[in-house]
Amino acid sequence: RRGLAGAAGPPSTRQLREAEEAAPVFQYAGKAAKRKDRVFVWGFSYSGALGVPSFVKPDASWKKPRRIQPTPYRLETEEKISSAACGYGFTLLASNTRDITKVWGMGLNKDSQLGFQRSRRDQTKGYEYVLEPSPIPLPLEKPQQTRVLQVSCGRAHSLVLTDSEGVFTMGNNSYGQCGRKVVEDEIYSGSHLIHQLKEFDSRVVQVVCGQDHSLFRTKKGTVYACGWGADGQTGLGHYNITSVPTKLHGDIAGVNIIQVSSYGDCCLAVSDEGDVFGWGNSEYLQLASVTETTQVNVPRHLPFKIGKVKEAACGGTGNAVLTEEGNVFVWGYGILGKGPNLIETAVPEMIPPSLFGWSDFSPDTRVAHVRCGLSQFAALTNRGELFVWGKNLRGCLGTGRMEDQYFPWRVTVPGEVVDVACGVDHMVSMVRSF
């Protein structure tokens, strides 16, 4: 008789296998189940920017309007969305498709930043608010061949990048941000005007809207800019407005730029060698590492000793960069992500990798991308997780709470987050279902 002591020994391999086979199955997804591409939205809904009409105008008498959606909400879309952008109360979605409709807009449209959205009641008028994703017809020469690669949104203007027909611009052009001549007293509401830009040294591969300026990066690694320049954000060596996209020089002359970023009035650029360059507003120490002036009108190299940088996110008052090792560094002013004590710094500080899920148990977890809006940041990991921090204006962080977030917090999204776009008070994410 072995007594009780024998039973407590480690289970044999056979026992483990039998237990495994007897265990219940909880996931019934087929082996060949297709993963679906979905879009989730959250934040302030009253502008229409979330694209869910029932939030603004309830579709049943017992429902209340939902001014704020504090957690990710699935948006029904017909197409797979490959690029999204959030402006000041509006959203653009684009699909890399050969179908006629390639771009949809929703939200605020007082400056025709979503193109002309014909009113159903009065065919001559356009909607100033668009409550659901509505097609934006582009004046394409070859609508069944040309693809839309990327979209970007500013305060009241939009840029649409195509693979073979250049860049299309729409919305407010008061400062030349659409890359066309400023027309005095131009009425932007109900405008049919969509302008095409082609005059670049090579194909444009990235478009970026700042608040009231625009940046264009070409295949050759050069950067062009137009629009409002009072803070030097066009980087053209002056503080005037510019209505023709013009090539930037300064410290990026002859440098191969692989990414540019801007959301407010400051701009950052990253070179193929991992260097960071900046220009524009420096009231919040964004460029204080090289100058004491608060406006910088020509690109300057920022001599950070943080290793090679592969991506930058340039917000309204704070900046973030991602290094090749997968580390995130932040500087500037505001809620930077290292707790309530770090409010301003001119020197980049690293956010501990453990806050993005790195640990001894998951040593391969890395941040893959950094994104930002006006006063919030987002980081995507190589495991498809989304972390956010910053000002939680009108629930834009998607955490389900209304408090600001002083360090990275994981957003619960049902799927693997592929990319995310941040606005002033809303966000959009592209998700692949599990």
UniProtKB/TrEMBL annotation:
<dbReference type="InterPro" id="IPR000408">
    <property type="entry name" value="Reg_chr_condens"/>
</dbReference>
<dbReference type="GO" id="GO:0008053">
    <property type="term" value="P:mitochondrial fusion"/>
</dbReference>
<feature type="repeat" description="RCC1">
    <location>
        <begin position="384"/>
        <end position="433"/>
    </location>
</feature>
<dbReference type="Pfam" id="PF00415">
    <property type="entry name" value="RCC1"/>
</dbReference>
<feature type="repeat" description="RCC1">
    <location>
        <begin position="221"/>
        <end position="273"/>
    </location>
</feature>
<feature type="repeat" description="RCC1">
    <location>
        <begin position="37"/>
        <end position="97"/>
    </location>
</feature>
<protein>
    <recommendedName>
        <fullName>RCC1-like G exchanging factor-like protein</fullName>
    </recommendedName>
</protein>
<dbReference type="Pfam" id="PF25390">
    <property type="entry name" value="WD40_RLD"/>
</dbReference>
<dbReference type="GO" id="GO:0005743">
    <property type="term" value="C:mitochondrial inner membrane"/>
</dbReference>
<keyword id="KW-0999">Mitochondrion inner membrane</keyword>
<keyword id="KW-0677">Repeat</keyword>
<dbReference type="GO" id="GO:0005085">
    <property type="term" value="F:guanyl-nucleotide exchange factor activity"/>
</dbReference>
<comment type="subunit">
    <text>Forms a regulatory protein-RNA complex, consisting of RCC1L, NGRN, RPUSD3, RPUSD4, TRUB2, FASTKD2 and 16S mt-rRNA. Interacts with 16S mt-rRNA; this interaction is direct. Interacts with OPA1; this interaction is direct.</text>
</comment>
<dbReference type="InterPro" id="IPR053035">
    <property type="entry name" value="Mitochondrial_GEF_domain"/>
</dbReference>
<dbReference type="InterPro" id="IPR058923">
    <property type="entry name" value="RCC1-like_dom"/>
</dbReference>
<keyword id="KW-0472">Membrane</keyword>
<feature type="repeat" description="RCC1">
    <location>
        <begin position="165"/>
        <end position="220"/>
    </location>
</feature>
<comment type="function">
    <text>Guanine nucleotide exchange factor (GEF) for mitochondrial dynamin-related GTPase OPA1. Activates OPA1, by exchanging bound GDP for free GTP, and drives OPA1 and MFN1-dependent mitochondrial fusion. Plays an essential role in mitochondrial ribosome biogenesis. As a component of a functional protein-RNA module, consisting of RCC1L, NGRN, RPUSD3, RPUSD4, TRUB2, FASTKD2 and 16S mitochondrial ribosomal RNA (16S mt-rRNA), controls 16S mt-rRNA abundance and is required for intra-mitochondrial translation of core subunits of the oxidative phosphorylation system.</text>
</comment>
<feature type="repeat" description="RCC1">
    <location>
        <begin position="101"/>
        <end position="164"/>
    </location>
</feature>
<dbReference type="InterPro" id="IPR009091">
    <property type="entry name" value="RCC1/BLIP-II"/>
</dbReference>
<feature type="domain" description="RCC1-like">
    <location>
        <begin position="34"/>
        <end position="316"/>
    </location>
</feature>
<dbReference type="GO" id="GO:0019843">
    <property type="term" value="F:rRNA binding"/>
</dbReference>
<feature type="repeat" description="RCC1">
    <location>
        <begin position="274"/>
        <end position="325"/>
    </location>
</feature>
<keyword id="KW-0496">Mitochondrion</keyword>
<keyword id="KW-0809">Transit peptide</keyword>
<dbReference type="GO" id="GO:0070131">
    <property type="term" value="P:positive regulation of mitochondrial translation"/>
</dbReference>
